[in-house]
Amino acid sequence: MLESKTTEFKREYIDDIKYTVIAFANTDGGKVYVGIGDDGSVCGIEDTDDVMLRITNMIRDAIRPDVTMFTECSVEDIDGKRVVALTVLRGTARPYYLYGKGVRPEGVYIRQGASSVPASETAILDMIKETSGDCYEDARSLNQQLTFDKTAEYFAKKNVEFGDAQKRTLNIISEDGTYSNLGMMLSDQCTHMIKMAVFEGSKKTVFKDRRELNGSLLEQLEQAYAYINQFNRTRSEFEGLERIDKRDYPPEALREALLNAIVHRDYSMSGPGLISIFDDRIEFVTIGGLVRGISYDDIMLGVSALRNEHLANVFYRLRLIEAYGTGMMKINECYAGYAVKPRIDISEHAFKITLPNMNYVAADNYAYTNDNRRNYNDSKLNASYLRDMPAHYYVQKSSAPYITNKEDRESIVISLFENQDTIVRKDIEIALNVSQATAVLVLRDLVAKGILIKEGGGKYLRYRLAN
């Protein structure tokens, strides 16, 4: 009798038998004989009942997932002596591992020749894929030492139960009692992250701030929204006595874009989600393109195809998303009536949503210099200027380009008097393409300099050139 890939000898019971059991269950099965020496000599076991009890207890306590249904312990008579034979079949929930070590090379063993050796990470991932299929969130997590403090807090805040029964229903705990990748994604030990950055201007040249978010996806969701909201400024305008506040970005659009970036991401691919904040826009870049079989036109029509069905179900339970694919439709509705519109860019492995700043007017990169200064109502100049300007950079209040230089503004205001004796505030808004509040400031400055003179008051207030 010789040891082989499917046969192992032990002179007496020792705790190291568990390594062999794991290796057999992860490979092609095998048989462990307790009472036979390494050289094949039969020494026998006096108290076979005690050895069998210790073996079954060890299998139950030290190995995960439960492999007892694939093992059988019996007593055999060999050369007139009683030995304990432990038969181990190839398991269906591979990889099996030591409870205290987890799904790591030091906890997972396979059979090579007559030895039980640690499995490589590649072999472990292959076993997970083989037994769990191609769905990443259903696969067994490599880390089984998970905690859910932040997720439990979030569920409690939403008045939703989060016990073991709910974890099983939500597929956080798999049928074999182990944590799935979905569990890892919602745990405090989540390995996926979101990287956020704030840039100066409209290009990725100068960083103003950056942040990396870790932990449970629910915690990342809250932190990401709070961070973005810091830069969602409010612009106030006055119409008569009424004050109108306008946020740079519709909160509902930010919420939907952020949820889309988390729920529809391909977590089987390495790399963080990216959120970039510019003066004129916010970009949400999600790893993983569209789900196979779904096109751009489909998602714009509200077709919903979930890559992470169980994760979406968790978010649905928490009333964060709806059951139907309304996210993109909501985002577009938020920009109804505005010249700027959200933009979607799709590649094979990435999905980007760009939300334009509704209060932003781009002028820094399109200066209105002395060389091209013309009367503001010159339609040919305006048409050329606007044609060369990126559409998602520009909030159009009129057909005139936006002017930031103070001297240029004064020149344009003075040019208004070439065809009329007096002007009103609305003329300034149209000529300079500015808000009501900015037009008031421009006029106030020109009056203080003695360039303009006020006439009348209230709704009859007009301005005349001083000289």
Explained architecture:
This protein is of the alpha+beta class and 467 residues long. It has three domains: 7-132, Schlafen, AAA domain (Methyltransferase, Cobalt-precorrin-4 Transmethylase, Domain 2, 2-Layer Sandwich), CATH 3.30.950.30; 194-356, Heat Shock Protein 90, CATH 3.30.565.60; 379-465, Arc Repressor Mutant, subunit A, CATH 1.10.10.10. It contains 15 helices and 19 strands. The strands form six sheets. The chain has a six-stranded mixed β-sheet, covered by helices on one side. A four-stranded mixed β-sheet has the order 1-2-5-4. A three-stranded antiparallel β-sheet has the order 17-19-18. Helix 7 (217-230) packs antiparallel against helix 8, helix 8 packs antiparallel against helix 11 (327-334) and helix 14 crosses helix 15 (436-448). The longest helix has 15 residues, at 48-62. It is rod-shaped. The model is unreliable at 362-402 (pLDDT under 50).
Average of the residue pLDDT scores = 84
The number of helical elements comes to: 15
How many beta-strand segments? 19
Principal-axis shape equals rod-shaped
- Give the CATH level 1 class of the largest domain: Alpha Beta
What low-confidence regions span 5 or more consecutive residues with pLDDT below 50? 362-402
Biggest sheet: strand arrangement: 10-9-13-14-16-15
How many discrete domains?
A: 3
Q: What is the distance, rounded to the nearest whole angstrom, between the alpha carbons of the first and last residues? A: 117 Å
Radius of gyration: 35 Å
The CATH topology of the largest domain: Heat Shock Protein 90
Strand residues, percent? 15-25%
Largest sheet: 6 strands, mixed
Percent helix range: 25-40%
Question: Structural class, judged by helices and strands?
Answer: alpha+beta
Named CATH architecture of the largest domain = 2-Layer Sandwich
